[in-house]
Amino acid sequence: MIEVNDMKKKFGHKHVLKGVSFTAEKGEITCIIGINGVGKTTILNAIMNLTPLNGGQILIDGDTISKHSYEKITFIPDAIIMQPNMTITEAMQFMADFYDSWNQQRATELLDFFKLKESEKINNLSKGNRAKVNLLLGLALDVDYLLMDEPFSGIDIFSREQIADVFTSHLVEDRGVIITTHEINDIEHLIDKVVLLDEGKVLKQFNSEEVRETEGKSVVDVMREVYQP
Amino acid sequence: MNVTFNKRDPVYVQVIRHFKEQIATGTFEPGQEIPSRRELANRLKINPNTAQRAYKEMEEAGLIYTERNLPSKITKDEKILQSVRKELIMEAVDNFVHSVRSINVPVEEVLTLVKEKYESGREGDEA
Amino acid sequence: MNRFVKLLNFELSRFMKIYLVLMIVTFIVQITGMIVTANSYMAEANKMIYEEGMSQAQFIEQYGAMSFLGFARGLWFTGPIAVCAAALLFYIFMIWYRDWFGKNTFIYRLLMLPTARLNVYLAKAISIVLMVLGFVSVQLIFLPLENSVLKWLVPVDFRADMTVGQIVKWDYLSMLVPQTFTEFILYYGAGFMAVSVLFTAILFERSFKWKGILLGSVYAALSVVIMISPLLAMNFMDQYYLYPLETLGLEVVLGLLVTVMSLWMGNYLLTKKITV
């Protein structure tokens, strides 16, 4: 379980996160939604110790993050994080060199799944394909938790569909996933848990299936109530 | 398998309903193997946990059964199969009656219309 | 291979293309320079001897014999060395900033490697030192080649021959090419210290942005003050109590202190304060 307790972050004098708390379980897809402004990416960065916090605590299966955590949890930012002059093969080799958790078999499977050509340079890929390589490099790690920043934004509809397919496939398996998005429509049926964020605070967190069952509301219905009372 | 889900009913309920329809129409035959939870999630593009939930509920209701580690199968229990069919028919009839009643049509007129429509529709399908 | 060695290998290979180009350009420019210098010297000699009727001895007396040092003082030789030095100095900054800039913010990947972040820092620092060492080494290979070109173009009577051993003892070359192992350790140790101070200053900037520039500058200034403190002490006090060798010892201790401080601070910033 990933536990985020009272996360606080300031940029200059601006309070971006004012005590954010939520949990994300293994085997579940947790979706952090914020309709405007910053904060979502900062939360993921902070979980990965890529930016310091002004307060709060993050626990991953009860432990604070250390170098060992990176074999257990990985982050897929919204832009590719590899050397652009590398080919896909070289990028995969880089990952294999550094991570014990690299799963070459799954990587090959993902190449196939996304219909990517190994010999191509990352630089020459389309935006959609670059997003897929980015996803591949993270998903092929045998980690328990995956954080993804806006995996659906800024790419074409078919790439979006393909990426959504990954979530329901064995490629994600029983891992814990946290994704951020500002657009829920495509993925309403894919997610377990929703964390609604605004102005640096969690306004509501709920299980999407539960809300449909007990209140007969869609995720968007709840968002409407929360964001436009 | 191509199902369009609405966004306000629990997805697992909609999945179960989809299964019932398939059973009632005979697309799923008694004793037929059904996809694994993961396959189902993938085909229907739904959360694997939701697929799991649907299977659990169906198992409890006796719609499907699992022997040891084998893939789950559609029930062969005639009583359950009949009740599924009946349930769907009753549901459809209820809906129909509800809408017809709201526009105050005499039942005889409705029945004649239904009969005509139903049969012409069937011929249309065959042609 | 452990992850540090892999990182070092990675850091070296990502600059390798430019690095090799710099080496090749150095070689071409220096050899060309040697040919041009030797030819113009001989042209002058021919003109003076055959047209002006000067004797060979008179010419050498007036113009001096052609020696390698005459060439080594010129821009043909020093230019490429200066360019390489400038490139490496620039790369001390770029080796960090390239990971933040552009669409591919590679720093995400580096910081998420399952290894101590200090390894990322050390791999970058050591690769800079190795690259300096590499430049000096190939320069040592170029020297005898250039020396042979000189011998080939200028007749023996006009030359003041020098061995490579003599050449590298001269002036700024003796700074680049340590004469003893102790010197080697001292020079490159000082180089590593300077790199670590700059790296830590860069990390201050990366961690605190505008405020970081100030902090980084203060940090660098503080390091300089520590290093020249014996000199300052000498100025402020009328007497100076240390022998030269003791001063050297003190400098070594201070240098180690500054290096360790830089590494510690760099590690702290990388693990606790850095923002991607």
Could you characterize the architecture of this molecule?
The complex is a heterotrimer of chains A (229), B (127) and C (276). The two termini of chain A are 32 Å apart. Chain A has 7 helices and 9 strands. In chain A, helix 3 (104-114) runs antiparallel to helix 4. Chain A has a single domain, classed as P-loop containing nucleotide triphosphate hydrolases (Rossmann fold, 3-Layer(aba) Sandwich). In chain A, a hairpin with a 2-residue loop joins strand 1 and strand 2 (14-24). With 229 residues, chain A is α/β, with parallel strands linked by helices. Chain A has a 6-stranded mixed beta sheet, with helices on both faces. Chain A has a 3-stranded antiparallel beta sheet with strand order 2-1-4, covered by helices on one side. By secondary structure, chain B is mainly α. Chain B has a two-stranded antiparallel sheet with strand order 1-2. In chain B, helix 1 crosses helix 3. Chain C has one domain. Helices cover 80% and strands 1% of the residues of chain C. Chain C has helices at residues 3-51, 56-63, 68-72, 75-97, 107-111, 117-153, 164-167, 173-176, 181-236, 244-273, and strands at 66-67, 159-160. Chain C has a two-stranded parallel sheet with strand order 1-2. In chain C, 28% of the residues are buried. Classes of the chains: A alpha/beta (229), B mainly alpha (127), C mainly alpha (276). The A-C interface holds A 45, 48-52, 67-68, 70-71, 74-75, 77, 79-84, 94, 97-101, 122 and C 3, 6, 10, 14, 102-106, 108-109, 111-117, 207, 271-276.
How is this fold's topology laid out?
The complex is a heterotrimer of chains A (229), B (127) and C (276).
Chain A: E1 2-11, E2 14-24, E3 29-34, H1 40-47, E4 55-60, E5 73-76, H2 88-98, H3 104-114, H4 127-139, E6 145-149, H5 157-168, E7 176-181, E8 193-198, E9 201-207, H6 208-215, H7 219-227
Parallel strand pairs in A: 3-7, 3-8, 5-6, 6-7
Antiparallel strand pairs in A: 1-2, 1-4, 8-9
Helix pairs in contact in A: 3-4
Chain B: H1 11-24, H2 37-44, H3 48-60, E1 64-65, E2 73-74, H4 78-102, H5 107-126
Antiparallel strand pairs in B: 1-2
Chain C: H1 3-51, H2 56-63, E1 66-67, H3 68-72, H4 75-97, H5 107-111, H6 117-153, E2 159-160, H7 164-167, H8 173-176, H9 181-236, H10 244-273
Parallel strand pairs in C: 1-2
Helix pairs in contact in C: 1-4, 1-6, 4-6, 6-9, 6-10, 9-10
